[in-house]
Task: inverse folding
């Protein structure tokens, strides 16, 4: 298990479990780039790195604001920014890459508008205030996107002719031909996925037992105890 490339050594079942956990945390909507994340397939290699070292540092601070250090290390300690950059470069489609990078500029512009300084120069409290406003925008955008998708699916099913046999499956385009995901939704997905599949996320933020080992089908649980990490 590594720190900045936490998915590299996970098998398919563990990767699937990690993605499912993050999906539940974010309200049940499929992750951007989910197919590539699940199967481990990469897009065609690109010439050069998509993110500079300064941009990776920026993503570290965004992730740290989402998952700050408390009694456990935060996202920056797990080098989550490098993970986010790697996943955007290797698993996002060009359109989603543009949205993500435009979002980084939008955060910078929002920080300057609200506090007169860039995001990297802002205090932790100022950064949190900026991201809270953007997160509210993201939630509204994501809810509208999900509602539109449900409406299209229901409309398609209503248009099917009445017949004793089951209706034809819904074409993929009827479900996925909607507005692009919000950039901050992408950032939250990757921050959570990167942190909770990192060494720190698995062994410090969660409880981790190396597998294979003894199987306990039922163990006592006390409220407030940390969740068990997926097994690598």
Result:
């Amino acid at each position: 298990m590594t720190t900045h490339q936490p998915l590299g050594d996970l098998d398919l079942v563990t990767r699937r479990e990690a993605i499912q956990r993050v999906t539940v945390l974010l309200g049940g909507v499929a992750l951007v780039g989910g197919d590539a994340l699940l199967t481990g397939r990469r897009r065609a290699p690109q010439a050069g790195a998509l993110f500079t070292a300064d941009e990776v540092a920026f993503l570290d601070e965004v992730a740290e604001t989402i998952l700050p250090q408390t009694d456990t290390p935060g996202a920056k300690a797990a080098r989550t920014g490098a993970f986010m950059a790697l996943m955007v470069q290797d698993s996002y489609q060009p359109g989603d890459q543009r949205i993500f990078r435009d979002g980084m500029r939008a955060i910078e512009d929002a920080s300057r508008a609200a506090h007169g300084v860039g995001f990297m120069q802002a205090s932790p409290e100022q950064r949190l205030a900026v991201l809270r406003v953007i997160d509210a925008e993201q939630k509204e955008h994501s809810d509208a996107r999900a509602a539109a998708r449900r409406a299209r699916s229901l409309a398609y099913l209503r248009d099917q002719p009445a017949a004793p046999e089951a209706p034809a499956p819904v074409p993929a385009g009827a479900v996925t031909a909607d507005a692009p995901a919000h950039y901050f939704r992408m950032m939250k997905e990757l921050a959570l996925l990167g942190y909770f599949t990192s060494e720190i996320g698995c062994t410090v933020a969660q409880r981790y037992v190396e597998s294979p080992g003894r199987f306990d089908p039922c163990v006592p649980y006390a409220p407030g105890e940390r969740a068990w990490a997926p097994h690598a």
Remarks:
- The chain has nine helices and no strands.
